[in-house]
Amino acid sequence: MVTLDQVEKFLGQVVRDEYGRSLGKLVAVFADVSGNVEAIEIAVNDYELVKVGAERIVRTPDALVILPEWKVAAIDVENRLDRVKKRMRSLEELNRKGMIPTHAYEELRKKLDAEFKKVREDSAKVRELLKTKINELDDQIIRYERAIANVYVLYMSNEVSEQSYKASMDFLRNAKSKCLDEKKDVEKHLELLSKLEAEPVEPQVKSVPATQPKPPETAPIPVVVIEEAPH
């Protein structure tokens, strides 16, 4: 949660996403009577206003950072999925040890089952969202690569100056690099969601290897030496 006091000093400044890309200028802040920011508006291309909810705003000492919508959705589902599975494992462990009554176990289990079903449905939707985002980023990366190749051809054929070539290539390469960074981030969260979904709900009971009984020790057979009497 960010407050109006934390945000107002950034009014009129350029706002960026966490990959360093400029999103536009912060031009308006919406806050409740307690001073908690509910949303901000960013001016894009000097004519379009984009509203951003407070859940996407991260304050750093020097700037406001805007999280992408897919990341906010992914983190929310990851936290819920992790929490509900931990509670289910704890409940099963308590029940296994006989530390809670049956009626309480059944009531809690029913509630957690319903929550688990809902979060799994939300997780499936978010995973599809992440896959779509990866495809969009792949398309964008291809467009940057085509533009880079085109500018390179024009430069090599002496149709653009070296100064123009460097300015163009610096922008295109930087933009492509940031797209790749975001793609890696999306893939990381997609992998994390799959891992969380695959985690077992039942508590892991460590099996203790059975000890083999030791064979009974046999007492040594006494040896008696009989000396023959002299003739």
Task: Please give a structural write-up.
This protein is α+β, with helices and mostly antiparallel strands and 231 residues long. The protein folds into two domains: 4-66, PRC-barrel domain (SH3 type barrels, Roll), CATH 2.30.30; 69-198. The protein contains four helices and six strands. The protein has a six-stranded mixed β-sheet with strand order 4-3-2-1-6-5. Helix 3 (102-156) packs antiparallel against helix 4. It starts with a helix and ends in a 33-residue tail after the last helix. The mean pLDDT is 90.
SSE pattern: HEEEEEEHHH
By DSSP, the count of extended strands is: 6
Uncertain residue segments: none
What separation lies between the terminal Cα atoms?
113 Å
Q: What's the rounded overall pLDDT mean?
A: 90
Q: What does the main sheet amount to? A: 6 strands, mixed
Outline type: flat
- Strand line-up across the major sheet: 4-3-2-1-6-5
Counting structural domains, the number is 2
| Structural class by secondary-structure content | alpha+beta
Radius of gyration: 33 Å
Enumerate how many helices there are, as a single number. Answer: 4
The proportion of residues in beta strands is 5-15%
- What percent of residues adopt helix (DSSP H or I)? 40-55%
